[in-house]
Amino acid sequence: MAEIIDGTAVAAAVRAEVAQDAAAFQREHGRRPALRVVLVGEHAASQSYVRAKARAAGEAGIDAETLARPADLSERDLLALIARLNADDGVDGILVQLPLPDHVDEGAVIRAVDPAKDVDGFHPENVGRLVLGEPTLEPCTPAGIVELLRRTGVETSGAHAVVLGRSNIVGKPLASLLLRRGLDATVTVCHSRTRDLPALARQADVLVAAIGRAGFVTADMVKPGAAVVDVGINRVDDASRERGYRLVGDVDFDAVADVAGAITPVPGGVGPMTIAMLLANTVEAARRRAAV
Ligand SMILES: Nc1nc(=O)c2c([nH]1)NC[C@@H]1CN(c3ccc(C(=O)N[C@@H](CCC(=O)O)C(=O)O)cc3)C=[N+]21
Ligand SMILES: [Mg+2]
């Protein structure tokens, strides 16, 4: 039976450290680190994520404000809002919640955010720095996964890490992080066109599932003793729950837990770490901006 990695507990530890850093920043600079979250439209999951982010930021001593705009906000007006936040010296971090409505070009919006305030780490300049191994604001979910592995003592050096999924938000940046000096994993990235994905997954010492399909990773795809990180957040109908659904990951948890050495649950695994790293990035952005 695998060790169940408690992402909520690790995230709480990170958040307590961030709160200390935020308090130190306030003592030194006479103001709190400031985060602005931009939410366009009424996507239900986005609304709940954004609420969770703002609440966690407030608890860490970050001045957090959510700027909610209607779904029909034009791309022009959204870019103007971002320009205003870029120009505001009292704003350290800007997060534009994704997905955006179809009439908005997400790439254009991501490029519009000042890289120094890009607490999502999605701007091409920050992605480039990440790939080059230079210090940068790291994307929150990959950074949270790495922090979770580090703090639970999962060895990555020389390990074969297999990442399932090649998204710009998780798979690609996580592969870059795991390759960096200090983490030193051997990385394989698999996707929908990968030939014999189960055979590659079975070679993984660290297996990361970020595909977005409930129960995709089955026990036969996992090497005994492997560390399994589940990034999936899938809603499945469940009439017995008050909300009418429950959350499951991309991993068939019960069966895989019998084979793996360690495994992250959903909920309570990677999700809380994503939020913790957003707070850490906000204080980091505030520090760097104050230093120049
Ligand atoms: N610009 C941008 N940056 C993001 O970082 C970003 C985004 N857009 N769009 C959506 C995804 C998703 N995401 C999550 C954050 C926390 C949980 C989380 O805390 N999940 C809880 C459960 C939450 C629940 O109960 O619904 C858990 O896994 O335990 C999940 C997902 C950030 N994202
Ligand atoms: Mg984020």
UniProtKB/TrEMBL annotation:
Pathway membership: One-carbon metabolism; tetrahydrofolate interconversion
Keyword Transferase among UniProt keywords: no
Residues in Tetrahydrofolate dehydrogenase/cyclohydrolase catalytic domain copies: 5-120
InterPro entries: Aminoacid_DH-like_N_sf (IPR046346), NAD(P)-bd_dom_sf (IPR036291), THF_DH/CycHdrlase (IPR000672), THF_DH/CycHdrlase_cat_dom (IPR020630), THF_DH/CycHdrlase_CS (IPR020867), THF_DH/CycHdrlase_NAD-bd_dom (IPR020631)
UniProt KW Transit peptide keyword: no
Binding site for NADP(+): G165, R166, S167, I233
Biological function: Catalyzes the oxidation of 5,10-methylenetetrahydrofolate to 5,10-methenyltetrahydrofolate and then the hydrolysis of 5,10-methenyltetrahydrofolate to 10-formyltetrahydrofolate.
Protein name: Bifunctional protein FolD
Organism: Rubrivirga litoralis
Gene: folD
